[in-house]
Input
Amino acid sequence: MQVHRMPGSAYTYKSTADAFITIARLEGVKGLFKGMVPNILKVAPLNATSFVTYELMKTLLQTN
Output
């Protein structure tokens, strides 16, 4: 749905449900998970950095 208005876009979806059904029908269930590995590889270091920063700041700003 993000590329809906791109020139040359092959698919036009009417809704999220339509996108889900069309992808599952044309590409199979595996098509619903396309791009998941690159996304996890991108998000995992981001979350790790956020958690480390949170814990570090919590320790540095702790007042007794």
